[in-house]
Amino acid sequence: MKFLDWAIVVAYLVYVIWDGIRMTKHSGDVEGYFLANRSLPWWAVGLSVMATQLSAITLVGTTGQAYTDGMRFLQFYYGLPLAMVILCITVVPFFYRANVYTAYEYLERRFDAKTRSLTSFCFLISRGLGVGVIIAAPSVILSIVLGWSEIATIFLMGLSTTVYTMIGGVQAVTWTDVKQMAVIFLGLSVVLIVIIAQFPQQVSLTDGLYLAGSLGKLETVNTSFDLTEKYTIWSGLIAALFLFLAYFGCDQSQVQRFLTAKSVSEGRTSLLMSAFLKIPMQFMILLIGVLVFVFYQFATPPMIFNSVESAKVEQKAQYQILQGEYDAAHAIREASALAFVADKSDAARESYVAADKVFNETRKNATEFIKAETGNKSFNDVNYVFPTFVVQNMPMGVIGLIIAAIFAAAMSSISAELNSLATATTIDFYRRHFRTDADDKHYVRFGRAATFVWGIFACIVAIYATNLGSLIEVVNKFGSFFYGSLLGVFVLAIVVKRARPRGAFFGLLIGIASVWLASVYTNIEFLWFNVVGCLATVLAGYLISLTDRREPNAGTAEA
Amino acid sequence: MGSHEKKNTETVEELPDAWWYKIYAGVVLTTILVIAALYAFSRYFSL
Question: What pLDDT does A344 receive?
Fold first, then answer.
């Protein structure tokens, strides 16, 4: 990193914090602080929805995944536009006209306080831990790639976001999200152009795509119906549809975005903006990963992208032998790639595919060697591919822009999460159960304190999460256990007229238990847990509701 | 809870449902076309 790169990163951080803090003047009362007085335009809300979903680990991990595995991950997003349409028809008008601050507040009106508190509590636990992971993952990567201390990166990212979120509330979150999306788009566009410009003179973009395509890295539609296959068109259109319905429709970090819109129409338009832009944007991110792969056909990539792990073993004789084999395999693959570019015959293609296979074997051997030597069985350097590529190959200025974009992606997600955690804590617990009659200023002060406490909590979780790989897995699993079941409760609330409080409460618990059983006794991919959880909750909730003869709460279904 | 409920007194003009259903149909159609285009893109460069 040169002076210009540092200047760009520092300028980004200073501007975002200043921009967030100056929103204080719009955040004096509860509605202003938590809902921006329902005054925001659709495009700002829409960009905030996208920024919240796009975390740094999505940005960095997805490009790395495209490098190793191609573009098949894109199928995960095929259900998103359909989810947005369903949400525009159902929850957007429901929540908006119900004048709620949190999604779970609606559940009290429809069912009871117990169901509201349980769902909100599940949200606080899963998101409270989840935001720690959102901070931890890019912090570890940036600390290794840039040579910073992990704790410094965690607190730089976590505390700077906490400060402006705490002071400026949801206005700060949304308007900084808009600028952060601009930084992300600018960074990605520049890196895309620079990568293509760095291809050898005789290799065009089309040639690069033929190279990637011949190895199956451009596959975007897999029609096999296999529940153990992670990314197929069916897991995207069906299983991920349930996940997106739960995430955008029942997770407070997203619901709060469209509740800040000026009207139902503006809320709907903000979600449809994601419906139109998400797949192209994700395509662009994956394409960058594929083009990094093409770039490394003509420049030797690091055998292991995580330099800290490779440094532990690089002096060993066995590793040096592997490095020699790797370099030789790369040289053969490079020659085959150039031959294929010059003559796109079947023979040249087969030769290139065979050379790539040998190359991948040598890299796999190195990975296995590191796993055996370090005892780290889950070692995987996919997330290090993109940042390492940027730092080693991008020109001055572009490095700083990309690091700022990674910060922007992380901070936009963290701010929305912290703001929604503070909202649920204040509205669903403090104002509901502990202090029911205070004035607005009191709740805004409490909301700020809650944001600060959640920010510190997230940083502490992040410090532990960097050392405990299994914790990250537990947090992610807990999230997937919860999402489908939470969606099931909202389906009961909005669609099933016969649903009663007892059914909703126990249906949620049965749904979570069903997902746990599915995770233990089957090997279906985690995306399908959302389907299992939702269906189990709705079915169990409906059957249990039949045993409850009480009438539902008055005036709820018409909200 | 009741004492804290916000009264939304501002009248906001909302677009009619019929208009929205046309937009939703457009979103679904666009999604199908995008997936088809991506499939064609994959096939084209896979030779």
Answer: 85
| pLDDT mean over A351-375 | 92
Q: Do B38 and A283 touch (CB under 8 A)?
A: yes
Cα–Cα dist A56/A414, whole Å? 10
Render A338-389 in DSSP notation, one character per residue.
HHHHH---HHHHHHHHHHHHHHHHHHHHHHHHHHHHH--TT---GGGHHHHH
CA distance A417 to A184: 19
Point out the residue among B12, B15, B42 whose CB comes nearest to the CB of A220: B42
Instruction: Convert the pLDDT of each residue in A185-229 to its tens digit.
Output: 999 999 999 999 999 999 999 999 999 999 999 999 988 887 777
> Which residue, among A377, A382, A331, has the nearest Cα to A356 in the 3D structure?
A331
| Angstrom distance (rounded) from CA A494 to CA A93 | 11
Instruction: Tell me whether residues A99 and B6 touch, CB distance under 8 A.
Output: yes
- Sequence-distant (6+) residues with CB within 8 A of A367 are A304, A379, A380, A381
* pLDDT for A124 beyond 90: yes
Nearest Cα to Cα of residue A104 among A440, A530, A433? A433
What is residue B12's predicted lDDT score, i.e. its pLDDT?
64
Check if the beta carbon of residue A392 is closer than 8 Å to that of residue A198. Answer: no
Alpha carbon distance A223, A232 (integer Å)? 6
The angle formed by the CA atoms of residues A129, A520 and A368, to the nearest 5 degrees, is 75
CA–CA separation, A102 and A253 (whole Å): 9
CA nearest A273 in B: which residue?
Answer: B27
Question: Which residue of B lies nearest to A276 if distances are taken between CA atoms?
Answer: B27
Chain A contact present for B22, CB below 8 A = no
The whole-model pTM stands at: 0.89
Q: How many helices (H) and strands (E) would you count in chain B? A: 1, 0
Which amino acid would we find at residue A474? Answer: V
Tell me the two tokens of residue A130: 């989840």
- Three-class SS state of A261: strand
pLDDT in tens, A364-404: 999 999 988 888 777 888 888 898 899 899 999 999 999 99
Using the beta-carbon criterion (under 8 Å), do A213 and B44 form an inter-chain contact?
yes
Residue-level pLDDT at A552: 64
0.90 surpassed by complex ipTM:
no
Residue with tokens 């994956």: A286
Percent of chain A topping pLDDT 70 = 96
Kindly state the tokens that stand for A26.
């719009």
C-alpha A513/C-alpha A508 separation (Å) is: 9
